[in-house]
Specification:
The protein is of the alpha/beta class and 151 residues long. It contains 4 helices and 5 strands; from the N terminus they run βαβαβαβαβ. It has one domain: Nucleotide-binding domain of ferredoxin-NADP reductase (FNR) module (Rossmann fold), CATH 3.40.50.80.
């Protein structure tokens, strides 16, 4: 049974300010609501550990790229990218779809009880949520927003 067969939860930010680490996973334009969370975090000078993983076809497809780079230079936020189609010359980051190894690498560890927010196309969100549960994440701490046809 997949994460979504158990009942999905829509994204809401009140838990994101709880002091627990944040794991934010964006597929393409799914970055938009997660960006609102990151802006709120920055506006409140939050030092909560936050990790963002953005999956896009190519680097030029990243919304808010300059702002994310700037935010990632501040304390407590790590920004990770994976490019699924085209990488620029010299790219040393991931060049594949989100997988279990990537999610484990981005962290934080399940033992830290991170609040996880995933947003993107339906298939992307369902796969990422299922992988997180397989990696030992608590399903009740995974919040998702998906768009497009259901799986």
């Amino acid at each position: 049974m997949s994460f979504f067969e158990k009942g999905a939860v829509r994204i809401h930010y009140q838990e994101a300010g709880s002091g627990f680490p944040l794991l934010l996973i964006a597929g393409g334009s799914g970055l938009v609501p997660l960006m609102a969370m990151l802006r709120h975090r920055a506006a409140n000078d939050s030092l909560v550990d936050a990790r963002l993983l953005v999956s896009v076809p190519a680097l030029e497809d990243v919304f808010y790229r300059e702002e994310l780079t700037r935010l990632g230079e501040g304390p407590g936020l790590e920004v990770h990218w994976t490019l699924t189609r085209r990488a620029p010359p010299g790219w040393s980051g991931w060049q594949r779809r989100v997988d279990a190894e990537m999610l484990a690498s981005v962290g934080p560890a399940p033992s830290e009880h991170p609040r996880t927010f995933i947003c993107g196309p339906t298939g992307f969100v369902e796969r990422a949520a299922d992988l997180l549960v397989e990696l030992g994440r608590e399903p009740g701490l995974i919040h998702a927003e998906r768009f497009g046809p259901t799986g």
